[in-house]
Amino acid sequence: MHKLSTKKAFIAYFAFGWLLLIVADRVDELRVYQGATIAVTTLAIASIILLTGYSGQVSLGQGAFLAVGAYAAALSQTYWQSPFWFTLLIAILVSAAFGFILAFAAGRMSGPYLAGTTLALAVGLPTLANQFSFLGGETGLVYDAGLPPERFGEEFTLYKWFFWIAAFVVLIAMFLLRNLLNSRFGRTWKALRANSTAASLCGVNVAQSKITAFTISAGVAGLAGALLGMVSIVAPSAFPLSLSFTIITGAILAGVTSLLGSMLGAVILVVIPEIADVIAHQLGDSEKITTNLPGFIVSVLLILTVLFSPNGPAEAMRKRKEQHAKH
Amino acid sequence: MISLRRKKSILAAVAVTSFALVASAVPANAEVGVSSTEIKLGTTVPMTGIAAPGYSKVAPAMKAYFEYINDNGGVYGRKINLVIKDDRYIPQEAINKTNELILKDKVFALVGQLGTANHLAVTSKVRIASRNIPSLFLNTGYSGFADVKKFKTSFMHFPTYVAEAKILSSYIKENFTGKKTCLLVQNDEFGADAEKGFATAGLTFDETVKYVSGTQSATTAQTWITRFAGAKCEVVVLFSVSSATAAALGVASAAGYKPQWILGSVGADSTTLKIALNNPQAQALLNGAIGVSFMPDALDTTDEYVKLFREVNTKYSPGVDFDTNVLVGMNAAMLTVQALRAAGQNPTRRSLIAAMESKGSTFASAAYGNLAVSRTSRAGFTGYWFGKFNLAGALIPLDAGRTVYTTDSATGPVTKASAKRAALPAKGIPTNS
Amino acid sequence: MRQLIGTLLIGLTLGSIYSLMALALVLVWRSTRVVNFAQAGQAIVTTYIAYEIVTRTGVFWLAVLFAVVAGALLGAGVEYFLMRTLFRHVDEGPVAALAPVIATLGLLGVIKSLVGMIWGNDFRSFYPPVSTDNFVLFGETIPFSRFNILVILSTTVVMIIFSFIFQRTDLGLSLRAAAFQPEIARLAGIRVGPIRTIGWVFAGVAGAIAGVLITPNDVLSPASLDVLLVFGFVAAVIGGLESLPGAVLGGVVLGIGVSFVLNYVGTTLIFPTVFVVLLLALIFKPNGLLGSKKVRSA
């Protein structure tokens, strides 16, 4: 597969961003809001893809890093009155530092042990907010991106503002990640994932590479968390275990090795529940059925996807294309 | 009930997409969600997931009552259509679903949502206040929601936890002076609000146990009871959700520990408690426990409201056990019908909010005492009566006159309420205007 | 002293409850290398079946029997119809190993929705077969009852029976071989497919026992075993995932840790405690308390 040069990729990302802006002006408010959610989810999924797809480590508790990022951003806004862009930087730095410490402690863990540790972290961390009053307890902290600048006019809605911010930040982050993965780091991680013994024989410092991957993934997740805090709230209940599972699911749907696929995963995650809801109300006649049907449909689709393309539809499409090219 | 056809009516969509437009005057008879034949309302509640038991009954109960009203002429000829969305008790989901309700289903108003964190999320990120979207009869007692400045379009149904704690305190101080008194609370805003109320009333506890929502079970309850028994508590206030209340009572029964129990209203639905306390000995423990309620007891079939709601429940939700959750849902629905009527022949969001402010405190409902809503407050009910649970799990008033106590959510005193409950409108169909 | 004994007893009870779920997870892990999140769902189904039997007949042990049979069938069904297809792709792609885990999450969702459709989302409950009244020793009530003894005994028996099968029988050898080196096992004439199914059947049985023993003391709803799943998984990881005594040890360590924190530190720290106990255990033993390094890297 040929790779775009950095310059061409930049132009592609720029054009895509422009396209998003135009589309956001044409669709209704709900879609704009969903667009913002998709952007945030894309980044969260990308953090998993970085970790699992590239360095082969499994985290079942990515929600914890989102929480750390969101709280760091909100705290810096609440107590230092930091400008919004600065809170995003804080989110990245603090969650990356947190990831580094955890990776250090969990350095010797692998596979299910790391998965278990991160899962326990995702369960344990949010409840700490109730222990320290500066974290705002159950009602959480106020965190927002402010209102859109007045010069955008009255028609410029808050959701469009969210979408602009989220899309802008995520596009930049994805562009940087893409370059990172095409660099020496990315190649090292891939070697690690494929065969850590072989990689170490080739002079790769396995432990160090894993810690680096974990740290960067945590930083990306932290940024996603801050953006999620912007769209949603910064409170313990905003980071349930199901959030971590949703992100992993998105990564699987995306095909864990494709960074661009993360967008596809995010779209599926946001759109499917709505479709399931509509189907459920068309089919169901009793309350018992209609309330449980959406969850049922989403879960069945998830199983079917995993059954028929365990590496995600994006990966399957890529494979098919490659096979096609061979013939 | 979501019809795809509606998607095509883009005309209305244009009006909503910008809240600047909505905030400015909309022609009286072209309000979002109100057509010549229908008023569309929406709610997000936990229909599945960890909070679903009990709570999943509230919204269907509202719907059942609305269907009863629809079969009896609706509201000025319009039928009420309630769209129920499942938020699984997760704030992000509540935001998503509320957005769907507002932007896709284009509901006129939100009614009867549950959960403090969820509604905080909705008010801060969907910004229903600045978009002038009414949210009627919140089924949570978080005192913060009474603040009209922050929650201009939100209206409470439940009394605040602060008020309940203050009223409980005055009772405890009067009847159990000198006894070791202890408290079980949830480790979140539900508990924090209650603790605020107890502190305001000057009641201190010899032992306070906080539990984390979701971890309540017979085994973790062992540690609570060990603590209470260890501190030799003679009076224990269970200000907890019903599954935690049940766990505490069950474990205490097994340990032979029998303090005077005082149950907060949230976890005192005897129907739920009896299911959870399948153990006959533990059920017996409920006997003699003191409870408070702002509603009549769901088992009290002599109450005219309960009797009517039970009939509606039997007819419109066959197979559903009538309990406090159903009672709460129907009560919210009956209040909603009155609010809609008070908003005029052609209700707008503006006229609905105005009607709530000016006439809300006069609405008839099963609750003892009136809504404390006004231009300066978004508070719900404020009155509580004390009762004792009998063997059947019914809460029997301590005094024949069923004295109702009332207070505010600040530092005001606890007083006996004077206002009598409004009589049930004929056949339970409001005719106010 | 009294409080210390009480704390230990509560910890032991908590631990044996966590262990039951941990045992089920370890049984699946040992036979197929999958963390089965659907275990909580499978156990919920069997517990609802037990609920139906117990409320209809009033015979608890008959309900256990039905639950165990249903658990076995369900375990076999999941493995045969879902997992087997997945494992055909298991070597394709780098993270296909994660795919089965996601499938089990999906399955958990499917099962919970179906249970909600059939039984609704309200609480159900049934009464324990033996008394939950606390024992009184030397005039002091201790937080321990016949029912607690039943739970601890059941955990021990389940652990011993399955450990025996795994360590001392040909079936156990085949199970281990099929999990670690399916290709070699196949060459050695082991029918890997059916053998793996048996692993899931065992887990289904253990999970069914877990559900049926935990619920009488609590309430039953489609999501009522979710929290237990988390604790059980953590217990299994602490124990090393490979060994059944490890799962029980992990459960007991976690249970006693949680009990100590709840009794002496703060009742609100239950979830952070889970993380700390796990982290401490894994910092000292990265492959779990009773996990062996050799086995893991295979």
Describe this structure as you would to a colleague.
The complex is a heterotrimer of chains A (about 325), B (about 425) and C (about 300). Chain A has one domain. Helix content of chain A is about 75%, strand content about 0%. Chain A has 13 helices and no strands. Chain A has helices at about 5-25, 30-55, 60-80, 85-105, 110-125, 160-180, 185-195, 195-200, 205-230, 240-255, 260-285, 285-310, 315-325. The longest helix of chain A has 27 residues, at about 30-55. Chain B starts with a helix and ends in a 17-residue tail after the last strand. Chain B is globular and about 65 Å long. Chain B has helices at about 5, 10-15, 20-25, 50-55, 60-70, 90-105, 115-125, 160-175, 190-200, 220-230, 240-255, 270-275, 280-285, 305-315, 325-340, 350-360; strands spanning about 40-45, 80-85, 110, 135-140, 155, 180-185, 205-210, 235-240, 260-265, 290-295, 385-390, 395, 405, 415. With about 425 residues, chain B is an alpha/beta fold. In chain B, helix 6 (about 90-105) crosses helix 7. The model of chain B is unreliable at about 1-30 (pLDDT under 50). By secondary structure, chain C is mainly α. Chain C has a two-stranded antiparallel sheet. Chain C has one domain (about 1-295): ABC transporter involved in vitamin B12 uptake, BtuC (Orthogonal Bundle). Chains in contact: A-B, A-C, B-C. Chains A and C meet through helix 5, helix 10 and helix 12 of A and helix 3, helix 4, helix 9 and helix 11 of C.
Kindly state the percentage of residues in helix of chain A: over 70%
Q: Largest contact between protein chains? A: A-C, 50 and 54 residues
- The overall pLDDT of chain C, averaged over residues, is 87
- Alpha plus pi helix count of chain C: 12
The largest β sheet of chain A comes out as:
none
Based on secondary structure, the structural category of chain C is mainly alpha
Q: Which regions of chain A contain 5 or more consecutive residues with pLDDT less than 50?
A: none
Give the tally of structural domains of chain C. Answer: 1
Number of discrete domains of chain A: 1
Question: Which class best fits the helix and strand makeup of chain A?
Answer: mainly alpha
Instruction: Describe the strand arrangement of the main beta sheet of chain C, using strand numbers.
Output: 1-2
Total helices of chain A: the number is: 13
- Helix/strand order of chain C: HHHHEEHHHHHHHH
Outline of chain C: globular
- Could you list the spans of chain C in which at least 5 consecutive residues all have pLDDT below 50? 294-298
Write down the secondary-structure element order of chain A.
HHHHHHHHHHHHH
Named CATH architecture of chain C: Orthogonal Bundle
Distance between the termini of chain C: 46 Å
